[in-house]
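Handout, page 2. Input:
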Amino acid sequence: RMLCGRKKSYFAAAAVCIITLTSMVTVSYLRLQRLSHQPKVIQEGSKCRGEIANSTITPLKDNKTFIISPYFDDRESKVTRVIGIVHHEDVKQLYCWFCCQPNGKIYVSNAKIDIHSDRFGFPYGAADIICLEPENCDPTHVSIHPFAHGNIDQLPRFEIKNRKAEPFSVDFTVCISAMFGNYNNVLQFIQSLEMYKILGAQKVVIYKNNCSHLMEKVLKFYIEEGTVEIIPWPINSHLKVSSKWHFMQDGTHIGYYGQITALNDCIYRNMQRSKFVVLNDADEIILPLKHPNWKTMMSSLQEQNPGTGIFLFENHIFPETISTHMFNISSWNTVPGVNILQHVHREPDRKDVINPRKMIVDPQKVIQTSVHSVLHAYGDSVNVPMDVALIYHCRKPLQRDLPRESLVRDTVLWRYNSSLIMNVNKVLSQTIL
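Output:
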């Protein structure tokens, strides 16, 4: 027994030693890692030169890294988080070059390259390029470079956004990414925009690749009104894009016109100016069933789910192939696109098929987002029950062979019909008709 007791105490002591040693090694490793990422002065007495980049998508000289925009992020430590697109294998190392005025010191930080997990097999993916900032400096611009040495004058400089915390200027911003394929669904687009406004959106940000001439007219109206902000999105000038979301071995570089990168940029772009960000497509509307608008709905949801920053809404297809004779407005018949008021039959749920979701998020709680969920966040996510709200998604059917009587008649959209018709008529009269 004594021998057994001694053996046990030896094992316990050995276990404590191993745990202590492992902890010390881990702490030392993390400290070394942090030290290796600390900004180092490589030049003094310089002026911040270098051309300021004005494009939404800027390729670096390696043509494997594309910079969208840097954002100041002090939620954990003082870092510059650069939203970008990188090749998942070929880009091994990047550095952030900060120029600090008035002393003219140039600091270089070893960047952490965090490629988002939802790459769906494509060689290029959305990435966060994260650098610790110099302690005694609040840099206004940053350059990104594959090397820790060189001439900063030769590097494009990017303005670091979100440097100053400001009170929210709007409650709800809708992010739409990306508009492509010579988009011409004009009537449905106007109806969606007017529904967003009725429900409480003050801003709609559109990452625009291309659209029809008629659609340009409509966008011009909304820009002048102050509702729409256009972010040019010429991604196909830099990469071979796919209109599919998953890789098909077809030589394309990135899926769905770089949608995930645009969504992440939109969240950070609106982090300091919008209380909530709505992530959905132009043919989708998050419709509240128990509340008149998004503001009252979100107040209620936040009250019921304290600490939650991500609210996910279930998608339901209202096929554009099944229509009703109601709201056949003759002046709308000359406008290209779908009249959503005529499509109030939704596809029934399928066994063993989970409906995808779209989101309303508190942008300050999001670190990385995908399309149907948030990848990293502070706080919880909650699935909003269908009796509280659903996504009205008017598009081609998914269940093509269903007879009309198998569809569910759902006229929740008609609650808004009088305001919607009046608002759509006003836009059409000032743009197209």
